[in-house]
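BUG: 3D viewer hangs when loading the predicted structure for this chain

Environment: internal workstation, default settings.
Expected: structure renders.
Actual: progress bar stalls at 90%.

Input used:
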Amino acid sequence: MRFGRVALAVAGALIVLAVGVPAPADATSATPSASPSPTCLRPPASGSVLEAGPTHLTFAVSANGGCGYAPVTVSVYRSFEDASAHLSAISSTAATVEAAQALTVAGLKPGTPYWYRFSGGGSTFESLIMGPAFTAAAPRDCTATYVLDGAWDTGFVARVIVHNNLTTPIHGWQVAWDWPGQQVMHEYWNGTPTSRLGTVTVTSADWNSTLQPAGEASFGYVGAGPAPATLTVSCVVTPTA
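Structure tokens produced before the viewer hung:
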């Protein structure tokens, strides 16, 4: 608004008053527009491997919901080169940012290295390639565990528990271990040893050779010599006759 001057004669004096006068429109001025939203430069998500199974990887994911990048996806690749080119990805996507706290990618191969990266809906952020992360080795058909039941100065009593890891029955098994010293097996039950010192092998008996899925059998023995605190015992399924 511009101010004009108005002259008034009051008692022989001249008084000048400032009076508001509307200013003319300025053709060069324009209504200011809203500032554009700043580009979000943060990655849509980050994370790490939480669990590695034989056929899956589970990721602990921290999603960035502040940029509106939802849903969040984690993708795994068989090689660094595939990850760089986004080729042959196996992915898992969260329905919401909250659901992205743990994402599992299944259908993988046991004992295999994979590379992985994260992405988010609408995000063009090129996330870093991470890895390799290895899936767990495939479980053996059967496993065996050594249990020390008792010991004295010159001997001990122990047993071995055999577990079927398959989803089908097995009809014969054999376990083996190496003595850590000069131990020797004497009496035994529920198994048939083919050797008793050095490298020991024991095969299943007729009555405990068949194990259902997740089933177990055990055999025991009396050993001479110092009792081993632990033993690494291997197990294989023997062919069905």
